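Forum: Protein Structure Q&A
Topic: Joint prediction for protein chains with partners

I've read a bunch of threads here and the consensus seems to be that you should model interacting components together rather than docking separate models afterwards. I'd like to see that in practice. Below is the full input, 335 residues plus whatever partners are listed. Could one of the regulars post the assembled result?
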Amino acid sequence: MFSVFLSPGSTLTFEDLVPVLYQEGRYQGDPVTLGIGGFGRVELMTTLSHGKYYAVKRVSKKHIVSKRQEEHILFEKEILKAIQSDFIIRLHAAFKDTRYIYMVMEFCSGGEIWTKLKEVGRFEESIAVFCTACVVEAYSYLHKKNIMYRDLKPENLMLDVKGYVKLIDFGFAKEMVRGDKTYSFVGTPEYIAPEIIKNQGHDFAVDFWSLGILIFELLAGSPPFSSSEPQRIYAKILDGVLKFPPYMSEAAKSIISKLCRPRPGQRLGNTKNGIKDVRHHRWFSNINWHKLRMRQIDAPTIRLIRKGPCYINFDRFPYDQTKADEEFSGWDRDF
Ligand code: PIT
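Posted by a regular:
Agreed with the consensus. Here's the joint model:
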């Protein structure tokens, strides 16, 4: 077992981590799974010594090699290691063995925004404003470091114990020189900007497009351009016609329209004043940005968070007993 320590003074070792088990219900006695994705699974773990909780992402090395994701996963770890923001998930440590790589991350006990949105249908405006403001802070931090995020959606937003929002999943993030463009086709169909679909090259502006889509989805419960077939979604995105439900406020419609402008150079956040213009839009007039950064605002999202066992705000997933094959090619030397 190799281990990497990322926080000086911390004594977290892989052997210290033990799984947290469901205390009741259908899966009683099984390890708690917080999420499953194409990438692997995230499990809830704790230490017997200090009792803190961690979300541990585990990915099969064989799977990474078969999907040619070696570079990607190494980069994901390097990015997460370099990031220190209250609005982005923290990576505490990274480990590997012969079968898996593990990323030990901060546990956000409030659960996914996506789960909450499904529960209540759509968010009240004050909740949507607060969640989006947290994302703006995360973007501001990332863009200052020349990192595009490229995968904004409710599934990638977690609530911490205070109801503050944190960005997770840096699988599509990319470091970019200012002024450069990249041509990779990435993202989730409903959130993809028109210039990506048209393969015209894209940059930081795609993050502002997706911010507009997110605001719409938080307020309406579903994104503005949707269909069961990705091709139909892309056609709607290229048409660019936003149809707002009658209950949406004028300020909300205004900020969404400005973020979802087809031409990247005209998009709010991507003109000469940069992200400042987003912060100054009237939809955010009740947000004190300084207080938000200081975590001195009472988060309206707290109403969405349930009290109970530490996994109560998460969907439950069956345990997967199968063990991945071993993998020895050595691509993970630097992990
Ligand atoms: C959870 C709960 C939690 C953290 C996470 C998931 C983190 C997931 C994650 C996944 C990634 C990544 C960063 C974070 O790059 O507290 O359900 O692929």
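Residues 5-106 form a domain with the Phosphorylase Kinase; domain 1 fold (CATH 3.30.200.20).
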